[in-house]
Amino acid sequence: MKKKILITGSRGLLGSSCVELFREKGWYVVGIDNNSRSKNLGTPAKVVGHDDSNINLDFTDARQVSSLFHEHKFDAIIHAGAQASHDWSNDHVLEDFITNAMGTVLLLEATRQYCPEAVFVYVSTDKVYGENMKIYPVEDETRFVSVGSDYDEGFTEDLGLDFAGHRSPFGCSKTTGDIYAQEYAHTFGLKTGIFRPGCITGKNHEGSELHGLLAYLAKCIREGKTYKIFGFKGKQVRDQIHANDLANAFWHFIQNPRKGEVYNIGGGPERAMSILEAGEAISKKVGKPFKYEHYPERPGDRIWDVHDISKFCSQYPKWEYTYSMDDIINDVISKEL
């Protein structure tokens, strides 16, 4: 019999990559998504076929979740569904908490009750670190550079979650789910893995002003819109990981899970660019100018956000990147051209 996996957020950027990968691997995929991103952020609603990989189900509804787990015995769960915008969470704190915190606990509890041997992958975020993810970099011509800090190759998992300053309500709700996912491993023995990415990208990303850096940047350049840069002269740095590479990391973890482990995951220094650098790179490829305006820095904004993924690589040495930074940009703009 085929192994069966549940993927939440199956119509989103990361969820759809997970659906595609696990189908290719021969798994039976059940995907759930209620298209809340379209409602919250104004992105296009995903039109999909009516099959088990795209069920319109709300994972914050205990009855719906219980019924789903009663009907299906899952071998693995990838919880990629979430409310993912910091800015949106500021004005919708309760909705954000219900989705990211309560929804995660409902899924963990259903896993414990109905399929306790299943592997549970929780897609957390590096925003759980808040302002602990901070260095004092050197300003270069087009970016800020980390020089002489303990994190020149990227931030590791030892940053800690306490005294983290400004996280945003989104960061708080995701931290809650993160800690519960760890606790379900320690107390109940669930095979949970917690992944803390930064910028996930790819051509399936529906970028909006409130979420999706590269996708929205490419959209602005293509449509001649002015991009808003908040603080740091546009030299703030983000590393990028393609959704397909992250989905493949989940695949490797599911084959040999380590209960309750936490992983920082991102593109690393080789896939890191400033907003100015990314804008100019996209501009050259699409042949249209990069227009932008500067706005004041927002509370909690990071000047340098790069991940050290050596822990995951040491435990899963067969996993490797398949997308370079140039590949990522080509893929993102392929949707826009």
Question: How would you describe this structure to a colleague?
Answer:
This protein has 337 residues and is of the alpha/beta class. The protein has one domain: NAD(P)-binding Rossmann-like Domain (Rossmann fold, 3-Layer(aba) Sandwich), CATH 3.40.50.720. It is built from eleven helices and 14 strands. The strands form four sheets. Strands 2-1-3-4-7-11 form a six-stranded parallel sheet, sandwiched between helices. Strands 8, 10, 12 and 14 form a four-stranded mixed sheet that branches. The protein has a two-stranded antiparallel sheet with strand order 5-6. Helix 7 packs across helix 9. The protein is globular and about 55 Å long.
Q: Largest sheet at a glance?
A: 6 strands, parallel
What top-tier CATH class fits best?
A: Alpha Beta
Helix content: 25-40%
Q: Given the C-alpha coordinates, what overall shape results?
A: globular
- Strand content is 15-25%
User: Please, what is the oligomeric state?
Assistant: single chain
Question: What is the secondary structure topology, with strand pairs?
Answer:
Layout: E1 4-8, H1 13-24, E2 28-32, H2 36-41, H3 62-71, E3 76-79, H4 86-91, H5 93-114, E4 119-123, E5 138-139, E6 144-145, H6 168-188, E7 191-197, E8 199-201, H7 213-223, E9 227-230, E10 237-242, H8 243-255, E11 261-265, E12 272-274, H9 275-286, E13 292-295, E14 304-305, H10 310-315, H11 325-336
